[in-house]
Design goal:
- This protein has 504 residues and is of the alpha/beta class.
- It folds into 4 domains: 178 residues, NAD(P)-binding Rossmann-like Domain (Rossmann fold, 3-Layer(aba) Sandwich), CATH 3.40.50; 94 residues, N-(1-d-carboxylethyl)-l-norvaline Dehydrogenase, domain 2 (Orthogonal Bundle), CATH 1.10.1040.10; 103 residues, 3-Layer(aba) Sandwich (Rossmann fold), CATH 3.40.50.720; 80 residues, N-(1-d-carboxylethyl)-l-norvaline Dehydrogenase, domain 2 (Orthogonal Bundle), CATH 1.10.1040.
- Strand 15, helix 14 and strand 16 form a beta-alpha-beta unit.
- Helix 1 packs across helix 2, helix 7 packs antiparallel against helix 15 and helix 17 packs across helix 18.
- It binds nicotinamide-adenine-dinucleotide.
- Nicotinamide-adenine-dinucleotide binds next to helix 1.
Length: 504
């Protein structure tokens, strides 16, 4: 199947990017919009993007002109009649997409392929409006399409194998990394990403951690380029809310029930960067530059002056905490919580901090500390129900004095980093266990589609499956949420003594 003439319906954020990617690969492109205004906006989006590429030296001025010359703009669907492939990229609404596919089916030559860029709707339901479901696929690009390498090629039960092969070959020709997936809500990347994002919103909504601290914890603790709430502001809270709703409808999985706060923000018109306000406040609508608002923390309050710290706990975790206190220049008394200590720090590792605090008989002065990896910049500072504010502030100030970055959170299993990371890894295992995707496909989707530094299976193999299993049990045990039950495959591999790509 040869694809040389393509069409794009909808030249919004994604459509304009997709048209550019096609034109950059020498394809002849027709872009269609609904009104002159939208068409002009789409043309302008494309022009600005090529100018940006020229400025960054990724494109010469002549190549930029040639690229734009390969795209024609139209208000008439009839201009799509001779296209080998048409990609639809209009708003995420099933009724709208079905109406468009019905029209395309009448206009595009019978052997033409119709593709949708939907993030969460059922490709099968969209295909069912046409008389050619065998020639309908999902072609899910990521934002920005010019940059992100992943394309999820969605095959429904009706899609012909040659159509899938043709679209995969096309994606490679575009310089992309195609991963073929079945038609399930959220495909690979969004199914894994949105469960995690939703859990992060709940953490913030329930007061477990502040918005700044959850974002910092994920950036430093997992090495992700963005924290979950800043990423949601970028995606758009309305879009996120809609994707979660669709995913819940299709799966019945409670982890996709959108955290109530998301809906409240949408009702209030706080949609993220695009409206200038979401979790954070921005300089102007559309700007990525954050400005302070009423929730921005002022400089951390200095706690009381600390000279001597009692340190509780055992094992590697306590050594990592001791190293922080050492650099902070305080005297440390091990296994000691006497009245001569100004502060008591419990190395939080598995045991709830409150248990140590109560045993120490002066719970108000006890806070937890966790250094996720030896020498890590991040330190999770744990406030129990008894900790007084001055003790928490003093512990955070010690971390800062030691050149580390503290985040403050409640005393819950997994604190912030583990409570977000391990359920996501567990979801990835369940996805592979269900036969929906393989280990390489999932790792590629998460690194190339979501710009994560490592795929979940690489992380699992490096962490050790036994460690991951134990941590996931701890997170599950505390809340008994069915969606958090450790995947049986994880336990099986631990018993067998092997990892996903490793043995022993
Ligand atoms: N934004 C992302 O990060 C992202 C990533 C991957 C896939 N997607 C998917 O791509 C598709 C488009 O998303 P987007 O972010 O580019 O949206 P967008 O809002 O930037 O553009 C939407 C386009 O939809 C059309 N449209 C809107 N309302 C319409 C109406 N009432 N009637 C007819 N046409 C209408 C217009 O052509 C508009 O250009 C969606 O299916 C979305 O799920 C989005």
């Amino acid at each position: 199947m040869e694809i040389t003439r393509v069409g794009v319906v909808g030249l919004g954020t994604m459509g304009a990017g997709i048209a550019e990617v096609f034109a950059a690969a020498d394809l002849d492109v027709v872009g269609v919009e609904y009104s002159q205004e939208l068409l002009d906006a789409g043309r302008e989006r494309l022009r600005r993007s090529t100018v940006r590429a020229e400025r960054r030296g990724r494109l010469s001025a002549a190549d930029g002109d040639a690229l734009l010359g390969r795209v024609s703009f139209s208000l008439a669907f009839d201009d799509l009649a001779d296209r080998d492939l048409v990609v639809e990229a209009v708003s995420e609404r099933l009724d709208l997409k079905r109406e468009i596919f019905g029209r395309l089916d009448q206009i595009v030559a019978p052997d033409g392929v119709l593709a949708t860029n939907t993030s969460s709707l059922s490709v099968t339901e969209i295909a069912a409006t046409t008389g050619r479901p065998a020639r309908v696929v999902g072609m899910h690009f990521f934002n920005p399409a010019q940059v992100q390498q992943l394309v999820e090629v969605v095959r429904t039960v009706s899609t012909d194998a040659d159509v899938v092969d043709g679209v995969v070959a096309l994606a490679r020709r575009l310089g992309k990394h195609p991963v073929v997936v079945g038609d399930r809500a959220g495909f690979i990347a969004n199914a894994l990403l949105f469960g995690y994002l939703n859990r992060a919103v709940s953490m913030y909504e329930t007061g477990h951690v502040s918005r700044e601290d959850v974002d910092t914890a994920v950036r430093l603790g997992c090495g992700y380029p963005m924290g979950p709430l800043e990423l949601l502001d970028l995606i758009g809270l309305d879009t996120a809310n809609q994707i979660l709703a669709t995913m819940y409808r299709q799966t019945g999985d409670r982890s996709y029930v959108a955290a109530p706060l998301l809906g409240r923000f949408v009702t209030a018109g706080r949609l993220g960067r695009k409206t200038g306000r979401g979790f954070y406040t921005y300089e102007a609508p559309g700007s990525g530059r954050r400005v302070d608002d009423g929730l921005t923390p002022t400089a951390r309050r200095d706690g009381h002056r600390v000279r001597r710290v009692g340190l509780l706990g055992s094992g590697d975790r306590v050594r990592a905490v001791a190293a922080v206190l050492d650099v902070a220049g305080v005297e440390v008394g091990r296994d000691h919580a006497g009245a001569d200590c100004d502060l008591v720090v419990a190395a939080a590792s598995g045991v709830r901090v409150i248990e140590l605090a109560v045993a120490a008989e002066r719970p108000a002065s006890v806070v937890g500390m966790n250094v996720p990896a030896p020498g890590a910049e991040l330190v999770e500072v744990v406030r129990t129900v008894e900790s007084d504010d001055a003790a928490v502030a003093a512990a955070a100030a010690l971390c800062t004095a030691a050149g580390r970055t503290p985040v403050v959170c409640g005393d819950r299993a997994g604190l912030v980093v583990d409570a977000l990371l391990f359920p996501y890894l567990n979801d990835a295992v369940r996805m592979v266990e269900s036969g929906y995707a393989d280990v390489d496909g999932v790792d590629a989707a998460m690194t190339l589609g979501c710009a994560l530094p490592k795929g979940p299976f690489q992380v699992l193999d490096e962490t050790g499956l036994d460690v991951a299993l134990a941590k996931q049990w701890r997170v599950y045990d505390e809340v008994r949420e069915p969606g958090l039950v450790p995947a049986p495959l994880l336990a099986e591999l631990v018993t067998a003594g092997r990892g996903f790509r490793t043995t022993g």
